[in-house]
Structure formats: C-alpha cells, structure tokens
Amino acid sequence: MATxxxxxxxxxxxxxxxxxGQWLKNVGDAVEKYESLLEVQTDKVNAEVPAPVSxxxxxxxxxxxxxxxxGTPICEIEVEGAGGESAEAPQTPSEEAPTVEAxxxxxxxxxxxxxxxxxxxxxxxxxxxxxxxxxxxxxxNGTGAGGRVTRNDILQAANHKDAAPSPAPAKTTVQPAQTAxxxxxxxxxxxxxxxxLEPLAPVRKVIAERMVRSKQTxxxxxxxxxxxxxxxxxxxxxLKNDFKAREGVSLTYVPFMMRAxxxxxxxxPEMNSQWNGDSIxxxxxxxxxxxxxxxxxxxxxxxxxxxxxxxxxxxxxSQDLVQRSRAGRLTMDDLSGGTFTLDNTGAVGTVxxxxxxxxxxxxxVTMESIVKRPVVVGNTIGIRDMVNVCxxxxxxxVDGAEAGKFLQVIKKHLEGIGPxxxxx
Length: 424
Fold this sequence. Notes:
The chain is an alpha+beta fold. The strands form five sheets. Strands 9, 12, 15, 16, 17, 18 and 19 form a seven-stranded mixed sheet that branches. Strands 1-8-6-3 form a four-stranded antiparallel sheet. The chain has a four-stranded antiparallel sheet with strand order 5-4-2-7. The radius of gyration is 25 Å and the shape is globular. It is built from ten helices and 19 strands. It folds into two domains: 3-111, CATH 2.40.50.100; 220-415, Chloramphenicol Acetyltransferase, CATH 3.30.559.10. The chain starts with a strand and ends in a 9-residue tail after the last helix.
C-alpha cells in the first residue's frame, strides 16, 4: 500500500514552527480527504489541518504539545485504494525541504541525518536566508520559541555583519545564550501536599513565550490620560436600542475608541510603524488588533483597514471577529497584519493597566472602565463620565512627545462626541 507522509504545514508567511494541539484522528482511524486531521497552534493562529488524502492513519510521529519546524513529518496515512510500493514524502520545489523533514523526524530518521547535526533546528526559510547573507545560523542568538533562530534574527545579523567584525564564538553564542536562558528561567514552584499540577496548554505556552519576548526585547514606556466621555455615554444610551434592532449587533464603546485610535494614528504615523533592527517600517495600512479573551486563551484578531470604516462598520467588524474568536472559527488572515492594538480592559472592571506591547507593533492602548466622578467643569463641580486611556509604547521608536500627542488626539476625539454625533 502507498503511504502519504503528512508534514507540519506553513500557516503563515512568517510562521516557522507549529505546536500540535490535539489529534482529531488516532492510529487505525479512517480519514477522508479534506477531513480535519489535527489541530495546530502557532503564535498567530489555531487551525485545523485537513487530511491531504483519503485512507487510514498508520503512524502519529509527533505527540500533542510538541513544537516542530514547518515541514516536519507529523503522521503517515495509508492511502485508500493505492497499491504497490510505499510512497515517500512529496517533494517540494525547495532543495532544502527534504533535509528539514529528515532532520526533524523521530529517532530513526534523526539518526540517519546525524552527519548534518544541528541543521534540523533551522527552517528552510532561515537556512536559505542565512546562505544568501553568508551567515552561520549557529552563531546567531535565536529569539524564537526555545531559542530557535528566526528569519528576523538572520536579518538583524545581516544588518550588523558589515558594521563590525564577527565576534569570537564564545562571545556570540555561548555567553549570550546562557545569559538569555538564565533571564527567562523562573523560580521553581513550591509544591505541597494537596496541590495539583495542571498541564500547560499549547496556546498558553505560546502566549507566555510572546509576552516574555516582548518584555525582554522591547523597552516599554507608559502614559495615561483621563477622558471625559459624558457626551459619548449619552450618545450610546440614545442609540443603542435602535442600533441593535436595525444593525443586528450591539453598539459598544469599542468602535468609538477604535475610531479615535485611527485619528491618532493619522496624526502620529510613527505609532503605526514597526521596529526593524536598524530601520523603522512605516506602515501604510491601519489595521487595528483587538485583544479578545476566549476559553482557549487571549488572541488578537485584526480589523483590517480600520481607517476606511465608520462607527457602524467598525462595530460590525469587531463583533464579528470576537464571536468567531470564541467559536474557534478565525482564519490566518484574521490574525495577521495588525499595526496597532486596542485592549478593552474596562470590560473586566479595571481602571488602570500597563499592557504588554504586541511586538513588532509600536504601541497598545487600553480603554478602562467608564466611571462617574466629580470633576471641575469651569468654576463648578459636576458629575461626569470619566475613563482612563493607557498607552504602552516602544521607546526605541517613539518618545514621550509623540506618545503624548497620540493620547491627546484620542482624548480630543472622544471628548468631541456628543448626543447628536453621527455614527455613519
């Protein structure tokens, strides 16, 4: 019978590895072509991988929770109705792909690949980029999961290649790797009688890795402004019932905040950029990510071209993404391309937070709880609806002056909303 080898798929242009979430089929199970075979999790998306052929699962090569490079064989399927000698893994146009598959396979294949020790740690894209720039990836300090070398690591190494002579291996590989590894290590937990251990879900591992990487590599700075949203609250109260009946979605404060962010990104385009080692990428599109809590963990779907939508469009787009997030029906496109992030932390009752930047973006804003407070208005004291807006920003790209201007634009926009403001 012919055998089809299924490899870890490419789930995005910049994705170099994936984590097996769970197998939806077991050894011995029949599977139809295009039927879901397993769930794969990356730092960008959770996706079900379809079977490339119809047949029977004969081997599972990678266990749930394991993270492997793109192209790694993960299972074998005995092809339905096929005869003759076993089929090998399909060849790809890349000459390097077979090497990655051989290097990443379980023990027998790994032993056969022993003469090329270490190459299996690098994805085809990383090795190709390293060869183009004449860089030995073994001398590059990886920032990916588990210290894996990424494309961005190679690009940064290439940017500095001509600026200074190559340091000695002991300085470029051993010591920085040990230091970085030590910095990531946490103090061990104290386990006592009656305590229980909960296995770390793959998505939580991804979140932890991304948060640690952001805090270790991005110099966070923080600002906050108070905003009087009394007019906005009155507008929403007046419109929310008719809006729900007419548009089919709830009118929340999120689209108003998103619209204010769009205006601020237009006024301060440096906030709509990305750090790129020795350069800054100024993004043309304004794609606003929204942090969404699900039962599988925090994810950030993206409202594409938010600057081209009015309040109604933003309300529909944002709620569609939230609903599909919680139902596990997001696509790779829904989770990629973000240029700035909004987190509606006020939904859980907070009034002041310090969010972690969603690198390589430059900033993230939180909208806190709207609370009634006594406020000086002219020469009197009045009861107003107030909200804190908090900003974390990458101090390599933006200074306090630009960040402050960004928040002031948000403040002015939100405070300019009144009971008669149009949402169309």
